[in-house]
Amino acid sequence: MAQLYFIYSTMGGGKSLELLKTAHIYECQGKKVLLFTSEKDTRYANLASDAKIGKIVARIGLEKDAWLIERVNCYDLAIQYKPNCILVDEAQFLTEPVVLDLARIVDELDIPVVCFGLKNDFMNQLFEGSRALLLYADKIQELKAVCYYCDRKATMNMRLQNGRPVFEGEQILVGGSVGDAIESEITYVPVCRKCYMSFKKQALVRE
Ligand SMILES: [Zn+2]
Predict the structure, then answer these.
(1) Which residues contact 44 (CB under 8 A, 6 or more apart)?
(2) How many angstroms separate the alpha carbon of residue 110 from the centre of ligand 1?
(3) Which pLDDT tens digit goes with each residue over 79-97?
(4) Are 169 and 159 in contact, with CB atoms under 8 Å apart?
């Protein structure tokens, strides 16, 4: 029996690396994997209006092409390609109907689907895709990351705008991650709850 998995972590938790590793293991055994990512991850996507293919990139330098899930029908592709496994990156950006399509792939086609993504946004609310996956996934797993400022486990993502923590704004505003080569006005750091709360309090005092 195939299952629907949700593997989540904060920024910098190695989700894309874990996904590419899983794809590599399947491919080494001559098995087929179908890869999806989101057009909302504008860091690497080819955003030509007719593009259907984006990229999954791990910071240590690995990358693979992946279907842009918003621009194709994942259920039809699963029927067409009959993969041994489906891997989805940036799963926080999925809509609930697409999560339900992925669940149908698991239940009706008996193909395992593994979704990798963030759980909470920079305001510490669930993303739509993460919420749906927490509700519908058979297995939920956390990849651990370490707080940027101390050694506690990171459970939250903090948005920095020009280097300063911000706690209000649009939910989806793609930026770099600390350590990325990409120069960006917006960056994200993984933080523990204690550091997040402390920065938030300081931001409120400043206002
Ligand atoms: Zn901390």
Answers:
(1) 54, 55, 56, 57, 63
(2) 41
(3) 999 999 999 999 999 999 9
(4) yes
| Active-site residue flag, 90 | yes
Tell me how far apart the alpha carbons of residues 128 and 92 are, in angstroms, rounded to a whole number. Answer: 6
Q: Tell me: the pLDDT tens digits for 25-42?
A: 999 999 999 999 999 887
194 CA → ligand 1 middle, Å: 6
- Structural domains of the chain ordered from first start: 4-145 (3.40.50.300), 146-206 (3.30.60)
- Exposed / middle / buried, residue 84 (Cβ in 10 Å: 0-12, 13-18, 19+): middle
Tokens of 33: 């994997």
Helix (H, G, I), strand (E, B) or coil at 20: helix
186 CA distance to ligand 1 middle (Å): 20
- Which of these is catalytic: 27, 63, 70, 90? 90
**Verdict on whether the full-model pTM lies above 0.70:** yes
